[in-house]
Amino acid sequence: MPVGRGGVAIGGGGLLLLLVVAAVTGRNPFELLEAVNEPQVSVDSAPGRMGAPTDERGRFASVVLASTEDVWRRQLAGREGYRLPTLVLFSDEVQSACGFNSAAVGPFYCPLDEKVYIDLSFFAELERRFGAPGDFAQAYVVAHEVGHHVQNLLGISEKVRDFQRQASREEANALSVRMELQADCLAGVWGHEAGRDADLLEPGDVEEGLAAAAAIGDDRIQRRARGYTVPETWTHGSGEMRVRWLRRGLDGGRLDACDTFAADAP
Length: 266
Fold this sequence. Notes:
Order of helices and strands: HHEHEEEEEHHHHHHH
Number of domains: 1
Distance between the termini: 39 Å
Low-confidence stretches: 1-16, 21-43, 45-50
Shape: globular
Radius of gyration: 17 Å
Helix content: 40-55%
Largest sheet: 4 strands, mixed
């Protein structure tokens, strides 16, 4: 269901992000709040649930998605083309082609239906539980899941899944870490392009994304939950790893800067 029209309050960081998107797309920033009504930004949400058309965070996620589309069309120019993902906003639980998921899993991407699923309460969790507030931190989350969509289009996801089927659990986890770190790097590529044309991203805005990446590292989550870490069980990478690869994408700004699988160590 397309995001409906209506007013939405945007804070200082959100306004900055809108200006960044305007710089990348060459469009009037005041039209971007209406841009979420265009066909390429498809949002599915159950009536009355968080993420309905009038929801502020849902509108914000849709604006971010629209900007990732412009970036990846350019980055993948000359290839088969960039198929647009669908953004699904949900709360509590959702049924995807990849199965039934509760909000406990957080945001995720399903390659079987090419949809990005965002539980908008996770944005509140970023600030309250993980200490990573700010609009750019939220934008990083959306851009990370779109990074998984890019991996799917490039055939990377399928190859990794094939290797994982034949691997031990520890080896499968290690491959998952490299997949997630690559998605972090691809989110950074989006961030690089978003601020390149007009240099509108201030250091503090980038730090919001870096702080979010660090906060949701496996080491920090495990230490918070059990008081110690078990690296062989990691599936997303440590906070230091996630920050490093997000920074690599932000600095490099190109797809070829994100080959986590060629690195000796992630």
